[in-house]
Amino acid sequence: MLIVKKFGGSSVADKERIYHVAKRCMEDYQKGNDVVVVLSAMGKTTDSLLEMAKNINPDPSKRELDMLLSTGEQTSAALMSMAMGALGVPAISLNAFQVMMQTSSRYGNARFKKIDTQRIRHELDNRKIVIVTGFQGVNKYEDITTLGRGGSDTTAVALAAVLHADSCEIYTDVEGVYTADPRIVPNAKKIPEITYDEMLELATLGAKVLHNRSVEMAKKYGVQLVVRSSLNNAQGTVVKEETDMESMLVSGVAVDKNTSRVAVFGVKDIPGIAFKIFDLLAKHHINVDIILQSIGQEGTKDISFTVAREDADETVAILEEHKNRITAKKIEKNDAVAKVSIVGAGMQSNPGVASRMFEALYNAGINIRMIATSEIRITVLINEEDVDKAMRAVHDQFIED
Length: 401
Ligand code: ADP
Ligand code: ASP
Ligand code: MG
Description:
The mean pLDDT is 96. It is built from twelve helices and 20 strands. It has an eight-stranded mixed sheet, with helices on both faces. By secondary structure, the chain is an alpha/beta fold. It has a domain at 2-173: Carbamate kinase (3-Layer(aba) Sandwich). Helix 2 runs antiparallel to helix 3, helix 7 packs antiparallel against helix 8 (212-221) and helix 11 (353-363) packs across helix 12 (387-398). The structure holds adenosine-5'-diphosphate, aspartic acid and magnesium ion (MG). Residues 8-11, 40, 150, 172-174, 177-178, 180-183, 207-209, 252 line the site of adenosine-5'-diphosphate.
């Protein structure tokens, strides 16, 4: 069997945990399996590196930032290989350049294009445990790129896909995927199985237990994932195409604080305005999420939408620059907001789910600022300060003990 095992930052945070992981990988190796290990940077290393960069230059070049951030994973991979060496197991660490994990050219948010398997195969054939740096790639300029925060999950799934792995295991600091973030909602329940589609929605809507692109890729290449704890042997969560269980009305609740609302007031109520606004943002690679347009009154209307918080200032600046062309009277942003979403395949065939969610928020005294829905999810935008309370209220409404 070929097994890909990915360990997140907290699972390799110190010497003791590194040895714990090394031993766990050894067990699989000693049974005769081929083992590929994907690692994140130790503990909060990536945050510290980001801070170091900002301290030197508040607006660092994205290329140099990736050069810096990629060192976190290189450190943990090398140390893991040393730990395995000390335990007497042959291991080798490889970075993205050595494997040749090719990505698109966008620094900070690159996507895999092609991954060479030759070097990894060669090392596995020599009966080595292969430890690969997560989160990084190489672009066509032979520069180091990174995949976006949480991207090591995607490295693991990509490797599992190209190596046709028999199993892809994501080890983290919780026992699996829960009905809500167990750190915010203490009575959240572990989900034994979840579909790619539901997991993709949850991950995209803020449940950071899996990087959303890892789920996208798992679905595309049919890689079955297991999410489980690196600290114990409890049964985790299987992420796959179809589950054996009856689909839950609501399988999970997610929150996303990385959002800002931008409002464009008083634009002319004529064709082409929405196109001009969103075309401008698309050209600057700014992703827009929930969009709300008011009913036109006296020839004008308001358009508001959400963007990732780090894009909010740039969004306002771009729109201010083109204020006349988009006929806006005023442009405003609000960072103190958050999204709360419910996800569930069972929603498609059950009316009244939205009203039950709104009822829970009303009972908790929480005001809703925007609403967006799809077939299997409902998202509301609320004040950031209400987010933990909202999450518990909505969770309790749908997920009984
Ligand atoms: P790692 O470093 O292992 O990649 P992350 O911090 O990226 O770990 O992801 C694990 C964290 O995701 C958990 O500690 C938990 O707080 C959070 N989380 C958010 N939503 C969920 C959820 N629905 N189920 C499980 N964990 C969740
Ligand atoms: N170390 C990176 C991060 O903190 C990647 C990862 O952990 O998946 O975002
Ligand atoms: Mg993660």
